[in-house]
Amino acid sequence: MGTKILGTGVYLPQRVLTNYDLEKMVDTSDEWISTRTGIKERRIAKEETATSMALEASKMAIENAGVRAEEIELIILATLTPDKKFPSTACLLQAELRIKNSFSFDLSAACSGFLYALDVADAYIKSGKASKILVVGVEKLSEIVDWEDRSTCVLFGDGAGAMVVSSSDEDSDILASRMYSEGSFWDILYAEKCGYIQMKGKELFKLAVRSMEAVCREVMEKAGLSTEEVDIVIPHQANIRIINSLADKLEIPKEKVFANIDRYGNTSAASIPIAFHEAVSTGRLKRGDVALLTAMGGGLTWGATLLRY
Ligand code: UT7
């Protein structure tokens, strides 16, 4: 039994917050933000909720997948900014999509959330327990950002990305994956129940490059593929310098590495599905290409998934 990626979708709020806007809010500059992070602007939700952003991204993914919403048997939604304590945002999304006879749950793995969710979906498919699954990454980080803290508020943005995956008798699109967590590092990146994002940026930077490099090498070895056989790397978008260092360490040319952090900043669990959808819709990722996805985030959590799209 193989896992096929049928379709993807995104939603990005209309409202754009540029580095120049931030210059008026905190003691920062476009120059600092651009050179230290690669971010130029980010999207900020206005009326949107996590559920409404997830809904728009999911509708697009379902349409692009060529399936009917009723065919979805499972929704796995990765977020660290759910709309309610409970029920899960996945259940709220299920209601909006009017899907019956399925089950839904949220998954909490911060910036690695989408890769974790895709990994769980792959396991459900391969065990025969579900055959059509909607996987979503959505964040409304603007709600948990301290807009007076220049060291964090310039980094994050809002948005959603979704993917429909299905069981198939053909070879699996997902070639290899490996997820990790190290809970003893929880205080490097976290938010208290009703608090703002706290981050030890420098420590995280080094751990991010090191961990993603190691896990990328692990999945390539597992699948028996070399870096030359990878057509595109779609990393979590946290910092362009992390992305570039990772590419250098893996000895993969920068042209093969997808980045849209300049436009959206760090959207945590939404960053990989948004980037994946853009890579597909701009023709950077074509059917048959080998894509390497990797992320690192709060938990700490990290992982990589190697797939043939
Ligand atoms: O998504 C989960 C994964 N996330 C990550 O992996 C993030 C990893 N970390 C990073 O991307 C970087 O560490 C940051 C972008 C967060 C920070 O960059 P940095 O090069 O590590 O800067 P820093 O925190 O060491 O700060 C350097 C200086 C400090 O001033 P002093 O102490 O040298 O005088 C900061 O106060 O830059 C100052 N600074 C700022 N200046 C202007 C910090 N934030 C700002 C700002 N504008 N927004």
Task: Describe it.
The chain has 309 residues and is an alpha/beta fold. The protein folds into two domains: 2-168, Peroxisomal Thiolase, Chain A, domain 1; 174-308, Thiolase/Chalcone synthase (Peroxisomal Thiolase, Chain A, domain 1, 3-Layer(aba) Sandwich), CATH 3.40.47.10. 34% of the residues lie in helices and 25% in strands. The protein contains ten helices and 13 strands. The chain has a five-stranded mixed beta sheet, with helices on both faces. Helix 3 (50-65) packs across helix 4 (89-97) and helix 7 (201-223) runs parallel beside helix 8. It is globular. The relative contact order is 0.19. It binds oxa(dethia)-CoA (UT7).
